Amino acid sequence: MKRDPDQYMPIATLTRIMRCVLPDHAKVADDAKETIQECVSEFISFITNEANERCHREYRRTVTPNDVVAAMEGLGFGNYVEPLTVFINKHRAQQDCCPPPRQATHQPLPPPPQMARLPAVDGYVPSPPAVDVANYLEMPQMRDYFVGPYRGGGGGGEQFDPFK
Description:
Layout: H1 11-21, H2 30-57, H3 65-74, H4 81-97, H5 133-138, H6 140-146, E1 148-149, E2 159-160
Antiparallel strand pairs: 1-2
């Protein structure tokens, strides 16, 4: 039977954890690693499913660490609750001390530049200044606003440029 690797915890991660616990001279057979991988993944799924059901009962969509702790206690793993709570508190303290680096956010394009309005003198409104189209489109914000895939009728995806 072929295994789906997406439903299991990575074997390299488990091997690294096992090496920390086992003596240096110990060797673990590949089939034993696969068995441990299946057991660990099933355990994680079991706890996560219970925490998710708790969230559904409380009409929430986000599983929190407190949900995981409550799920472990509810499923009979109470002896793991205290060490897990200590770990969560240390992790939160570390996050408060050193916040993670900010993610780069996508900045929206600025609006196209507006032409200055000249005041009307005695009912006369001057015509707008002439625009050099070639240089106008060299401004990146203008190219992004006016040149893009043509989505109108006819034509098969060619570029639409209103200045040609």
